[in-house]
Write a structure and sequence with these properties.
The complex is a heterotrimer of chains A (about 150), B (about 625) and C (about 600). Chain A is α/β, with parallel strands linked by helices and about 150 residues long. Helix content of chain A is about 45%, strand content about 15%. Chain A has one domain (about 10-145): Rossmann fold. Chain A is built from five helices and four strands. Chain A is globular, with a radius of gyration of 15 Å. Among the domains of chain C are: about 5-80, Ubiquitin-like (UB roll) (Roll); about 265-510, FAD/NAD(P)-binding domain, CATH 3.50.50.60; about 520-580, Alpha-Beta Plaits (2-Layer Sandwich). Classes of the chains: A alpha/beta (about 150), B alpha/beta (about 625), C alpha/beta (about 600). The interface of A and C includes residues 12, 22, 76 and 115 of A.
Chain lengths: ~150, ~625, ~600
């Protein structure tokens, strides 16, 4: 998991198909510099993101999670899916705190299809942020408990 | 009623020093404890302006002229207490100095026929009761109770009553057209905008007998089917406005104005609108514009006001004098009215007889009386020494009728034919001291001021005509100016928009027609025979005639005449201001009017003495224009 | 309307009732001179020049034709000796009043009057007091600014107390109707025309010569009627209306309102185009500081035959320029945050065309400040060559600055990269080839259609190479400069492609919908109805008989919101099932181990 003993965070990003995924795609096409630590899971809309996915990601070993969709008010391809995200995610944040996961490991926000540079920047900054926080090792904790 | 009196003292009129006289009379009567018995009545204009204020004591009929406040104690003592006539205050006829003591005997009134002015000077215009007492509102009662509107119109048409404002349109036809016009709202308008200088018939009527106008308007409203009336009065007539306002209030109180007049179901009310005194607002379309609150400017009248007048609604506009005739026609019948006057001009007409006559004043004569009769019999002829040269009728836009034509009867057609017009009734008598060029210039100056300026011929044309006339009177006119003036006058006459412009050249055209040689004299010879054009004139003394009486020396305001007694006198041309006082005063005809060019200012102390005695104009035809 | 017959100059004329004699004469080409008449205004009868002889009931008299109604049976003579005499005298009066007005001189000469007959008071007088301006201001415009003051010979026209008034809306109607040119309008700052630097268009015009349908429109910003209505908050709603009165087809309808039409369509092409970048954003070009610094679009208006100068290229002083500079890439290819980084693509070629026009029309020297000449299209390079041969001076290098000199001349400085030197040239006119940019409201449109935009603001196509007209929203296509700067051939090609795609979609007859839809596993549905409110497309309905929620697959767009919401976990989003996503997450963390293994 680590290269040369150096900690490399694993980050899972849930992106909506229309805005942030497009931005990420454009960032890639445009050859913008991005850390390789971010793995993207595409959903059609951020409204599809079940909080369970976030927990699952952490449980599977992610050190950070990003959720990003279309800008409110009107960017959402599905009219108002982003509003559902807007209401759910603060709850997810609270939930994570109760699990003892630092707020810095979870990011949710908006990046439109035109904002590829913003995506690249987010990945860079978030990766560094998580890197500073160190490994989460949730999976190991579960494993040890199971053991 | 408490006001039964032993005697009425009628004082006319409310102008001049009359208010003081009335106060003095009242005080005197009060002092003597006669207030219960004797009433002082301030009446409207009795017409005899030259001897005002006049007092008539009823029932005796004593007539006193030129009464001053100082005469009051004697008058009260003698007449009202002792019942004797005060000879000192009697009117004395100019010719013969015969004293006339009774109103009925005055020649001034004897020749007149007062229908419209019947109440002026006879009743208190502020009392509706007095008007009713002399038969007022009887005609209205007759109309409302026993006549249909069509019968009223038929009666007026039959009477032949024509507009007294000047144009002479048949009143009955106008009423009929208004009645037939489509529209629920119609207006009856009384034109009391009397703008002619020197004319005061309408004023006297509005001040002296306002109820007659109101009664006429109510009858008109019934006939045409109108419920709203306007009286347009110029604000320079505050007393007329006051008396009319009082009269309207009184009429409303008596149920003669307002809803359901006399229980007939007919409703009508009147508002007074005060005009700002523009001459052109006497023109019907301009008057209506002014009533609407706009600038009083005339508009083209191819559609009659009877169809589209005030506020674009059918409007019946009559002169106040026309309306004041109406009650009398209804009361006495159309046949009676039609029996007065000439074939085409019926009834009487009020005139303001002014100018060079002995008895100027407000008169009313039957149509068809000759000018000569009016001027000589009623007016008493011109003052001493003078001769009538012309009579100017019809106000500033009327014309001058020469002395040779004074036999023409006064009616609409004859006056128009003679190049003048009836107008609203101004009548100015001109004597031989009047210059016809100067009189044209005077009237055009007035018209220039009063032209509204809307249409080009009137605005520009009058200005240019005046320029030429001024040039003629000051000696700068050129040959051909008279012809130019004529062409211009004819264009202004044909091309102007309204009656003001169309008639504005009348003074010029009528004087050119009858006094052309006078114009030519002005242009060619620089000579004004009457001496009125001062810049053309010089006065000289004819040695052969001057007996050296010294009268002229006394009257000369410049002290410019010198001479020994019983020796011919001299006039110093350098100081002479051409006032003509010496000319007027000389009984020997020794002072002559000569062209200014004929005298020289040089030599012999600048005395014009010694110049040719004959009319020098012929000797020196315009060679040297008299320019100071 | 009843038919009437009137005889004019011996010729019987059949016409309709309700007109004036003058109107009948005008319609039948019978000349009658007038000064105070205008067809849209009430006859006034002030100048009296239209005096004619009218015989009614055998009684001839003179009347003004403009006010006299044309009654049946009238006999009118327009040119008798008497009529001519009246007109001659009137012209003498007019010429004496306004001796130096060409129109009056001309009309007077017709009647043999060449010199003022009366003393001239003011040789500079131009007003003949015809009252046209007063009437147009009060009756048509309803501004009530001009009126007569004083009376008679002192009559004057002017605003109240002859003072400037805010009531004047500067519509210019008075100057248009004035026959003698006695009224001038002085444009002030902040006046309505300030927003239209190349002069006002008429308030009613055909939008462009190629407009389809080719009907005029009313510019409500310039139209007196609408301006008065706006200014008075609708109180004056019957101002002007001259066009309506004159339109014989009765085609003008002031009550027409902008309508919102609701159409059901199967495809939408977004072709919202571009707007000009505001050239004041880069102050070094001094745009707005001199009337002779204009944008290329303004130049187009200037050189248009229907423009303010009739197509002549003139400076603000009305003279032909001797030197003209054209500066390329103003606001394009510029990293300044106020400008755009991209190339606007069309400027090079239109600048060359404009250089050609200036050479052709004025023979002025032309300086083109360019960075690169992007003559990329078919025949473009040849045109570039031709313009060079016409003598246009090409300066390779960005025009750096435009200075307005005190003399009014303009100094353009820039680097000539070929010479490696700073150059400056003083010119009479500068044309800025300003950038084009997405319309200011592009974001609204993007939201409306669910479009995304590229960083430069243009609408993003679904794929830069493979889907150049499609968008991420099915059925919505892009055409032309909405997608990015394009010249005319490119726009036409792009639009053709968009149209084809739209037509292809419509002609298919059936629509393929995405398989990514939600389905309810009715066994698990607890009938809580939570999903019903959450669905933005109302694709889920509750089936009462079965007591379950059910998804209409044709309406469902597959966003999956309901899937995440369903408390019972009864809804599955096809292709994005919970299991699939979970597997993805698991998969992420399994891969490295596989590699290690």
């Amino acid at each position: 998991m680590s290269n040369n003993g150096k900690f490399e965070p694993r980050i899972v990003a849930f992106l909506c198909n229309w805005c942030t995924y497009t931005a990420a795609d454009t960032a890639g096409v445009s050859r913008m510099k991005q850390p390789p630590n971010v793995d993207i899971i595409r959903v059609m809309c951020t409204g599809r993101i079940d909080p369970v996915f976030v927990l699952k990601a952490f449980a599977e070993g992610a050190d950070g999670v990003i959720i990003s969709g279309c800008h409110p008010p009107g960017d959402c391809h599905y009219t108002n899916g982003n509003y559902k995200t807007f209401r759910r995610m603060p709850l997810v944040e609270m939930l994570l705190q109760q699990y003892g996961i630092e707020p810095g490991r979870f990011h949710w926000g908006w990046i439109s299809g035109a904002e590829a540079p913003k995506w690249a920047e987010l990945t860079r900054e978030f990766t560094e942020q998580v890197r500073k926080l160190g490994p989460l090792n949730w999976k190991k904790q579960f494993a040890s408990k199971e053991d | 009623m408490a006001d039964l009196h032993r005697a009425d003292v009628l004082v006319s009129c409310r102008h001049g020093r009359t208010p003081e006289l009335v106060t003095a009379l009242r005080d005197e009567i009060e002092r003597r404890g006669l207030a219960e018995e004797i009433r002082v009545v301030e009446t409207g204009c009795s017409g005899f302006c030259s001897v005002g204020p006049v007092i008539t004591v009823r029932p005796e009929g004593h007539f006193y002229a030129s009464v001053q406040p100082a005469d009051v104690p004697e008058l009260v003592e003698e007449t009202l207490v002792k019942g004797r006539f005060v000879q000192r205050l009697a009117y004395k006829e100019a010719a013969g100095r015969k004293a006339i003591t009774r109103y009925e005997d005055l020649p001034f009134y004897a020749k007149q026929m007062r229908i419209v002015l019947r109440n002026c000077g006879m009743i208190d215009p502020r009392s509706i009761d007095e008007y009713i007492a002399v038969g007022g509102y009887e005609a209205l009662g007759k109309v409302l109770t026993s006549m249909t509107p069509d019968e009223v119109i038929a009666e007026i048409k039959k009477s032949g009553l024509r507009g007294r404002g000047g144009a002479g349109f048949h009143a009955g036809r106008k009423w009929e057209a208004t009645r037939r016009a489509k529209g629920d709202i119609k207006y009856v308008i009384a034109n009391g905008d009397e703008g002619d200088p020197g004319a005061f018939m309408d004023r006297a009527l509005m001040e002296g007998d306002p109820h007659a106008i109101i009664e006429g308007m109510i009858i008109a409203s019934y006939a045409v089917g109108s419920h709203q009336g306007y009286i347009y009065v110029r604000d320079e007539y505050p007393l007329a406005v006051e008396n009319l306002t009082l009269a309207i209030q009184a009429a409303r109180e008596y149920g003669l104005l307002g809803e359901d007049i006399l229980g007939s179901g007919h409703s009508f009310d009147i508002r007074i609108v005060r005009g700002a005194g523009a001459f052109v607002c006497g023109e019907s379309s301009a008057l209506m514009q002014s009533l609407e609150g706009k600038v009083g400017e005339p508009r083209a009248k191819h559609v009659h006001a009877t169809d589209r007048g005030l506020f674009d609604r059918p409007s019946c506009l009559n002169n106040v004098e026309t309306l004041a005739n109406v009650p009398q026609i209804i009361l006495n019948g159309a046949d009676w009215f039609a029996s007065i006057g000439t074939e085409r001009s019926k009834g009487t007409k009020a005139f303001c007889l002014v100018g060079k006559v002995r008895n100027p004043g407000l008169i009313e004569v039957p149509m068809g009386m000759t000018l000569k009769q009016i001027v000589n019999d009623i007016g008493g002829g011109p003052p001493k020494f003078r001769k009538v040269k012309a009579v100017q009728t019809g106000g500033p836009s009327g014309g001058c009728i020469p002395a040779s034509m004074l036999d023409i009867p006064v009616d609409y057609e004859s006056l128009t034919e003679a190049g003048s017009m009836m107008g609203s009734g101004g009548m100015i008598v001109l004597d031989d001291r009047t210059c016809m060029v100067d009189i044209s210039r005077y009237f055009l100056e007035f018209l220039k001021e009063e032209s509204c300026g809307k249409c080009a011929p009137c605005r520009e044309g009058i200005k240019r005509m005046l320029e030429i006339l001024v040039a003629m009177t000051n000696g700068t006119a050129k040959a051909g100016d008279l012809e130019r003036l004529e062409t211009l006058a004819k264009t202004v006459q044909t091309a102007s928009l309204c009656g003001l412009g169309k008639s504005a050249p009348n003074p010029v055209l009528s004087t050119i027609r009858y006094f052309r040689e006078e114009y030519e004299q002005h242009i060619k010879d620089g000579y004004c025979a009457s001496g009125a054009c001062r810049e053309l004139t010089a006065y000289v003394i004819v040695d052969e005639k001057c007996k050296g009486c010294g009268l002229c020396i006394k009257v000369c305001p410049q002290e410019g005449i010198s001479g020994e007694q019983k020796q011919p006198h001299y006039i110093d041309q350098a100081v002479c201001i051409k006032c003509g006082a010496c000319y007027d005063v000389c009984r020997l005809d020794a002072i002559k009017i000569v062209p200014k060019a004929a005298v020289s200012l040089g030599g012999n102390g600048g005395n014009g003495h010694g110049t040719p005695a004959a009319t020098p104009a012929k000797d020196k035809p315009g060679a040297a224009k008299g320019k100071a | 309307m009843a038919k009437i017959t009137i005889t004019i100059d011996g010729k019987p004329i059949q016409t309709e009732e309700g007109q004036t004699i003058l109107e009948v004469c005008r319609k039948n080409n019978i000349y009658i001179p007038t000064l105070c008449y205008h067809p849209v205004l009430e006859p006034y009868g002030a100048c009296r020049l239209c005096t004619v002889e009218v015989t009614r009931h055998g009684w001839p008299s003179l009347h003004t034709a403009c006010t006299h109604p044309a009654w049946d049976g009238l006999v009118v003579r327009t040119n008798t000796a008497e009529v001519r005499a009246v007109r001659k005298t009137l012209m003498e009066l007019f010429l004496s009043r306004t001796p130096n007005v060409p129109l009056i001189q001309e009309m007077a000469a017709e009647y043999g009057v060449t010199e003022p007959s009366y003393p001239v008071e003011d040789p500079n007088e131009k007003c003949i007091l015809c009252g046209l301006c007063v009437r147009v201001c009060n009756d048509m415009v309803k501004a009530h600014v001009l009126n007569f003051s004083s009376r008679g010979v002192d009559r004057k026209v002017g605003p109240p107390f002859m003072e400037k008034t805010r009531e004047c809306i500067g519509c210019g109607a008075c100057t248009i109707v004035c026959p003698t040119g006695a009224i001038e309008i002085v444009l002030q700052k902040n006046a309505i025309y300030a927003a239209k630097p190349l002069g006002p268009t008429a308030a009613i015009y055909v939008p462009s010569l190629q407009a389809v349908p080719r009907v005029p429109v009313i510019d409500t910003d310039s139209c007196i009627r609408f301006r008065q209505r706006d200014r008075s908050n609708g109180e004056i709603e019957d101002a002007c209306g001259a066009c309506q009165m004159l339109c014989e087809a009765n085609a003008i309808d002031f009550t027409q309102q902008d309508e919102i039409l609701e159409l059901n369509v199967g495809a939408i092409v977004v072709a919202t185009g571009f707007q000009m970048w505001d050239s004041t954003k880069l102050s070094q070009y001094s745009y707005g500081k001199s009337p002779n610094i204009i944008t290329a679009l303004e130049f187009e208006r200037l050189s248009n035959a229907a423009g303010p100068t009739g197509g002549q290229i003139l400076t603000a002083d009305g003279v032909k320029p001797e030197r003209v500079a054209i500066i390329h890439c103003v606001g394009s290819r510029d990293k300044n945050p106020n400008a755009h980084e991209y190339c606007s693509r069309i400027c090079c070629m239109y600048s060359l065309k404009q250089a050609h026009l200036v050479r052709d029309k004025t023979h002025a020297e032309v300086y083109e400040f360019y960075m690169d000449m992007r003559a990329f299209g078919k025949g473009y390079e040849e045109f570039y060559e031709r313009v060079q041969e016409e003598g246009v001076v090409m300066v390779r290098g960005r025009g750096a600055e435009v200075q307005v000199l005190p003399s009014g001349k303009l100094r353009v400085t820039g680097e000539d990269a070929n010479l490696g030197k700073l150059v400056a040239v003083d010119v009479d006119m500068v044309v800025l080839s300003s950038a084009i940019e997405p319309p200011a409201d592009a974001q609204k449109i993007a939201q409306l259609f669910g479009l995304s935009r590229t960083p430069d603001g243009w609408f993003a196509e679904a794929h830069p190479k493979l889907k150049p007209v499609e968008t991420n929203t099915d059925g919505v296509f892009l055409a032309g400069a909405a997608q990015g700067p394009k010249d005319v051939p490119d726009t036409v090609a792009h639009a053709g492609a968009a149209a084809s795609m739209a037509v292809a979609l419509l002609n298919r007859g059936e629509v393929t919908i995405s398989p990514q839809v939600a389905v309810v596993d009715e066994k698990f549905c607890s009938a809580c109805k939570t999903c019903l409110n959450i669905c933005p497309y109302a694709a889920i309905s509750f089936i009462v008989e079965d007591n379950v929620a059910r998804v209409n697959e044709a309406l469902c767009k597959g966003c999956g919101t309901c899937v995440a919401t369903c408390p019972a976990g009864a809804i599955t989003g096809k292709h994005f099932t919970d299991d699939q996503i979970m597997a993805q997450i698991e998969g992420l963390f399994r891969v490295p181990e596989l590699v290690e293994a």
